[in-house]
Design brief:
Layout lengths: L1 H21 L4 H20 L5 H19 L6 H18 L9 H26 L9 H13 L33 E5 L12 E4 L8 E2 H28 L3 H6 L9 E3 L6 E3 L3 E3 L1 H12 L8 E6 L4 E6 L4 E9 L2 E8 L8
Antiparallel strand pairs: 1-7, 2-3, 2-6, 4-5, 7-8, 9-10
Helix pairs in contact: 1-3, 2-3, 2-4, 3-5, 4-5, 5-6, 6-7
Length: about 350
């Protein structure tokens, strides 16, 4: 009798938490239940010896949390991505390697939540671009949609360093001599190469192998301009071939207008579609941190990327002044000084 009573008491917190998860409806309730879930996960994983049955119940609770979160459209995309990343990292960090298979269901639900959001934003991006004439695009809505899509395209922390070849090192670098370790620091300008203004949302193509970024909204407007010009050329070709009797050829050429809107990357020239543009979240966080500390982002700011730590830091560009020559003409002494940051010769 005592055993049955103790087992019932242990089941009550899990059942109560499950009921609270099913009744989540606001951002505050989602945050509260996520905190309780992470605390329960850590406490169950730290028990010695661990209870496999309780760990499986925690995995079921994590899956229920993800399924409920997927139905809440009122929660911001950034919060959904944060909760999914928090659960995934908590499972990978708290659970020992021998217990990770017990959370396969929870990790599958987390990835399912990410995939659902990816498909939703991809479909929304298609509806905003392919179903509307390019001249009537809502560029702000498209930019926001790509930003939200980028939140769910990030890889988990354990796999993020194992993807593909490293990006090409650019800019100024500090390279150690000999055959020892090489420390590289790359300086990236915050001047957008398209609009020549300060970058608000740093982005690049998924196939780009460089660290330089461009402004997302400026690239969306560029793609819109390319799509408008392509539509005008296609319409002109259709009219000309219709007048000459080439009906079949004119209809066949309309396949170009059905392709995904794209434009050339301003740095590497690769043809990049809107579906393949991603926001650099690490750089965006560094820019937000700089602004939060009282800094003002401008075209004179640079981003310093440390290859060893993989971190970004935003700072103001400090121009170095150095004497170039001293020219004496009679009683007039002319000193020419050059600012390295303002002259192409000093870069």
């Amino acid at each position: 009798m005592r055993f049955i009573y103790a087992k019932t008491v242990r089941l009550m917190p899990h059942r109560k938490l499950l009921q609270e998860i099913r009744s989540m409806s606001s951002a505050a309730s989602v945050e509260a239940e996520r905190s309780q879930l992470v605390s329960l996960l850590k406490s169950e994983c730290s028990r010695s010896p661990p209870s496999l049955h309780d760990l499986c119940k925690v995995s079921m609770l994590c899956g229920a949390f993800c399924r409920r979160l997927a139905t809440l459209d009122t929660i911001a995309a950034s919060d959904v991505a944060k909760h999914a990343e928090s659960l995934s990292s908590s499972i990978n960090c708290s659970a020992p390697s021998a217990q990770v298979p017990l959370f396969a269901y929870a990790l599958g639900e987390v990835e399912g939540l990410r995939n659902t959001r990816r498909l939703r934003y991809r479909q929304r991006l298609d509806d905003l671009t392919k179903g509307v004439p390019a001249s009537r695009w809502d560029t702000e809505h498209i930019t926001r949609c790509i930003t939200e899509l980028s939140l769910f395209e990030k890889l988990p922390a354990r796999r993020r360093n194992d993807q593909g070849p490293p990006k090409r090192v650019c800019g100024e670098s500090d390279i150690g001599g000999g055959s020892g370790p090489v420390a590289v620091r790359c300086q990236l300008p915050l001047r957008d190469p398209i609009s020549l203004s300060v970058i608000a949302t740093p982005a690049r193509g998924v196939l780009c192998q460089h660290h330089e970024v461009f402004d997302l909204s400026a690239f969306v407007r560029t793609v819109q301009l390319v799509a408008v010009r392509r539509g005008e050329s296609v319409d002109g070709a259709l009219i000309q071939r219709w007048g000459t009797g080439g009906v079949g050829a004119g209809l066949g050429s309309s396949s170009d207008s059905d392709s995904s809107p794209a434009a050339n990357c301003p740095f590497c020239g690769k043809y990049t579609s809107l579906q393949n543009v991603r926001v650099d979240e690490a750089l965006a966080e560094a820019m937000a941190r700089y602004s939060g500390n009282g800094g003002v982002l401008s075209v004179d700011c640079v981003v310093v990327w440390d290859m060893q730590s993989g971190s970004y830091n935003v700072m103001e560009k400090q121009a170095e002044v150095r004497p170039v020559c001293v020219k004496v003409e009679g009683d007039v002494v002319m000193e020419a000084e050059q600012r390295r940051g303002e002259s192409p010769l000093g870069r």
